[in-house]
Amino acid sequence: MTDAHESTTPTHRPTSEEIASRLAAADIAADTATVVAEKSGPFDVVYRVSVDNDDLPAELYVRTVRGERAQTVREVLGRVDIETPTTSVLDGTPSLLVSHPARGRPLSTVLPFALLPGIWRLQRAGLESAFATIGETVGTLHAATRRESVPVATIAPHDQRLEEVRASLEHLGLGSAVTATVRERLERLGGVEFAVATSHCDLSPHNIYYCGGDVDLIDVAFADRLFASDLVKADIGVTLMTGRLPYARDGQRRRLLEAFWAGYDSTGIPVDPRATAYRSLRLYYYCHMLNRYVEDDGLKRGFQLTKWTDGRLIRRIVRRECEQ
Q1: What is the CATH number of the domain that holds 68?
Q2: Cα(210)–Cα(206) distance, rounded to whole angstroms?
Q3: Bond before 94 cis per omega within 30 degrees
Q4: Over 101-156, what HEC string results?
């Protein structure tokens, strides 16, 4: 779907009325549009929109994006079959991604119940199937959009974040011996090469919706990143979520991640999660998260709520990694 708006740089966040007008031009009868997520400026604002079309769900989600991102989404979804809610693109100023609601509930709310003793036995098969599907979907996206390999330190956002993490290591409470090991691993990581591919960029349990074995990935950035970053974030997301739950067992975490890797290996770019390069990338991400907790400034509510549990857990994981 396209509209006739000219592609000039927007200077303000579109109002609800402007969003409704843009949708009306595409024959979508919008009743109300409510902002549910936003960043500063006109881009990456998400609206929940009530609509009155017989052939559409009662609600749609609309995200404002830059024109180049809209073009990438159109191209990728036109040739790659991935598990995301039905999404269309409206060109304009700014461009709009119009998505159907995701099926089910986010894994961040499903897993705390599903991992309970007694419940896990009933939920395990469906969850393992879902994690395999997640891996297959991400692998399909990566393989279809794979480009050249580049050193970690030469691509955003790692070009700046690596230096920030290195500068903060002394303040992360890891101890002198562990800090020295981490510093050495991160120095080598800067020159390690990974392929670039169109990526989700935030593959956490919050952005994976689960419905009886089916999954929908939401908040897909469709940005060019190191493909392994998606894998590391999925790995970390499951590890931290299970680590927060006093009743969760490490065997549950292993089963879910083994299912994810089995799915990814069937479709994606070859990578060994036991290799030093992958483990160092994961170590860097853990330290990046820990640095955000230590800095403490401007953290979102989710970070504030998990700061105390995750800080201790991440330090334990980092120390264990450095002992191997």
Answers
A1: 3.30.200
A2: 10
A3: yes
A4: CCCCEEHHHHHHHHCCCCCHHHHHHHHHHHHHHHHHHHHHHHHHHCCCEEEHHHCC
Could you tell me if 135 and 53 lie in one domain? Answer: no
User: Which helix (H) or strand (E) covers residue 241, if one does?
Assistant: helix 227-244
- Residue 194 domain boundaries: 105-323
Region for residue 157 given its phi and psi (left: phi exceeds 0; alpha: psi -120 to 50; beta: otherwise): alpha
Per DSSP, the three-state class of 227 is helix
Q: Looking at the domain assignment, is residue 60 inside a domain? A: yes
For 70-89, what is the mean pLDDT? 94
Helices 227-244 and 250-267 pack at an angle, to 10 degrees, of: 160
Residue 294 CB coordination number (10 Å)? 13
CA dist 90 and 27 (Å) reads: 12
What integer pLDDT is reported at residue 213 of this predicted model? 76
The per-residue pLDDT for 212 is: 82
Q: In the structure, how many helices (H) and strands (E) does the chain have?
A: 10, 11
User: What residue type is assigned to position 266 of the chain?
Assistant: S
Query: 117 and 219: one domain?
Result: yes
The pLDDT of residue 6? 42
Kindly state whether residue 72 falls inside one of the protein's structural domains.
yes
